[in-house]
Design brief:
The chain has 309 residues and is an alpha/beta fold. It folds into two domains: 151 residues, Rossmann fold (3-Layer(aba) Sandwich), CATH 3.40.50; 129 residues, Riboflavin kinase-like (Elongation Factor Tu (Ef-tu), domain 3), CATH 2.40.30.30. It is built from ten helices and 16 strands.
């Protein structure tokens, strides 16, 4: 798969099928669009292309307004797994706010991508001030000799699959429901950094994570997680919150990795959220906190490690 990060790098493609969108989180609706694009390309021996943005356009106008469901690396890796030939992962910048709908179609879709088929969602908009939509794209397709398929929304449990709904689930801590709409459990990656090491003093050492990107985190609380470290998988009890017992003012995410005792400072690890165990709570003493952590880890051991076959 080829990843192109600037329109200036884009050379003319012989023929292609294309899908266009932000593709935040790459949920099940996005995967339908991408899979249709890939299948059409393979059936017609042409290239499959995903046109997307490295940053959410909303964040260009208002910094960090929308938190990411998926990192850029995660998005690219997922597209590779789906069989995409070319990803245009373009920064949304001032130049993108000025391009007209007709220029986008003429100069990018037609001249550069030589598009034969485009797949977009029903609520798709493009170009400056969102002047283009799916219906206009269909009209322009008739003028420039390419087909446009407008894909209706995907519904699960009578709920439309969307990045907004997935964010709402995460905000409520319903990580066990996210998989139904995202297609996989919610995951985050971060670098392990030093903390106060309070957990170590009470027998529950934790890996404290720092993120490189503006990621959304589930609602504060304790979660059962899978922890991926150097191609190995462990279970973990992950705390998201402010550690009210010891009055930490900054939101943190730290994981007690079960059956693990190695120095991983500076390493990148991935957390996969399985379920929410409980709310974050202020305890009267460290001894009370320790007893609760024993209960939390016991629950995870019994359900995910020592479960009967």
């Amino acid at each position: 798969m080829i990843v192109i990060t600037s329109l200036d790098e884009l050379e003319q493609i012989e023929e292609s099928s294309v899908t266009i969108g932000k593709f935040e989180g790459l949920h099940k609706g996005h995967k339908v669009l991408i899979q249709k694009t890939v299948n059409y390309a393979r059936e017609n021996n042409i290239k499959s292309v995903v046109f997307t943005f490295a940053n959410n356009p909303a964040n260009f106008f208002e910094s960090e307004k929308v938190r990411k469901i998926l990192t850029n690396k995660g998005k690219i890796d997922s597209m590779r797994e789906l069989g995409v030939d070319i990803v245009l992962n373009i920064p949304f910048d001032e130049s993108m706010t000025k391009i007209s709908a007709i220029d986008f179609v003429q100069n990018i879709l037609v001249k550069k991508l030589n598009v034969k088929k485009v797949y977009v969602g029903h609520d798709f908009t493009f170009a400056r001030n969102k002047e283009g939509d799916a219906n206009l794209l269909k009209v322009l397709g008739g003028e420039y000799n390419f087909d446009v398929d407008i894909i209706r929304p995907i519904k699960i449990n009578n709920i439309r699959v969307s990045s907004t709904y997935i964010r709402d689930l995460l905000a409520q801590g319903k990580v066990d429901k996210v998989k139904d709409y995202l297609g996989n459990n919610y995951t985050v990656e971060g670098v392990v950094v030093g903390g106060k090491q309070l957990g170590r003093t009470i027998g529950f050492p934790t890996a404290n994570l720092k993120f490189k990107e503006n990621l959304i985190l589930p609602r504060p609380g304790i979660y059962a997680t899978k922890v991926y470290i150097n191609d190995k998988v462990y279970m973990g009890a992950t705390n998201i919150g402010f550690n009210p017992t010891v009055r930490v003012e900054k939101l943190s995410i730290e994981t007690n990795i079960l059956q693990f005792n190695q120095d991983i400072y500076g390493e990148t690890i991935k957390l996969e959220f399985l379920e929410r165990i409980r709310d974050e709570k202020k305890f009267n003493s460290l001894d009370e906190l320790k007893e609760q952590l024993k209960k939390d880890t016991k629950k995870i051991y019994e359900k995910y490690i020592c479960k009967s076959n």
